[in-house]
């Protein structure tokens, strides 16, 4: 669609997290540094929180791409709506550990044997738990107990907890004092500022071969930031809509008026009021002009 029209090599604002598009904002660069510091420390917990769409998954994927697979074996648990036994089972699956038996004792023994084997081979295990805000106190305590596995004087497992802001509140619980003492670093991903929002947009466009077409008028950036709050996923959604609208209208400029219209249409769609928006505004392109477009 608009990608080939504007000469892009790919969609610049796809919602699927892609480490190739990682943007090192001040907050994201700091969070990545914390994660890398945790890997260097070889033990303990790192906690990274952020609102929905703040770029946590892209951050994790950027970290994973930077790891040496001959030194670090990483396992990810993405579904955290689990009790403590199911969580252990999910960890076994994440590391590809075969378990003989179905009890918690069997799973713990299998995991310890696997982690010990890695250590003996000069490797170590890193567990990344996404959506960690869904874990209860019992499940978080189970993760702490796993951190007790040792090979000589070295911890066999370190864990990174990635989640929404609710995770921070959970970790403040008095029941998790021992876990808190093992958190060596924690940070929160906030929204991008106005200048960072502009840099983020241009970073993604340049990554796919943007050469200034369509042009983003000076007044468009502030409106994009205002409507998205600097949240990366929201920026992606709005900018994708803006590129689509520019393609349909055969326009080479995106200005503040285009941003306002696109944002209003998206808001109306989200609340089921698209009919009201269509009645109040002329469409960007008629149905005939849309049909005449050559879809790749």
General description of the model:
The structure is a single chain. The strands form 3 sheets. A 5-stranded parallel sheet has the order 2-3-6-1-7, sandwiched between helices. A two-stranded antiparallel sheet has the order 4-5. The termini are close together. Mean pLDDT is 90; it is low at 283-296. The protein has helices at 2-5, 26-41, 56-66, 84-95, 104-120, 137-146, 166-171, 177-180, 194-207, 218-228, 232-248, 256-270, 274-280, 287-292; strands spanning 45-50, 72-77, 124-129, 150-151, 154-155, 157-163, 183-189, 215-216, 253-254. It has 2 domains: 2-8 and 193-292, no CATH class; 26-189, Rossmann fold, CATH 3.40.50. The chain has 14 helices and 9 strands. The radius of gyration is 23 Å and the shape is elongated. The protein has 296 residues and is α/β, with parallel strands linked by helices.
The helix content is 40-55%
Outline the low-pLDDT stretches: 283-296
Counting structural domains, the number is 2
CATH topology of the largest domain: Rossmann fold
Determine the structural class based on helices, strands and strand pairing.
Answer: alpha/beta
- Separation of the first and last Cα atoms: 6 Å
Rg over CA atoms: 23 Å
CATH architecture term of the largest domain? 3-Layer(aba) Sandwich
State the strand order across the main sheet. Answer: 2-3-6-1-7
Mean pLDDT: 90
Task: List the total number of helices.
Answer: 14
What is the number of strand segments? 9
Class of the largest domain, according to the CATH hierarchy?
A: Alpha Beta
H-E order: HHEHEHHEHEEEHHEHEHHEHHH
The CATH homologous superfamily name of the largest domain equals P-loop containing nucleotide triphosphate hydrolases
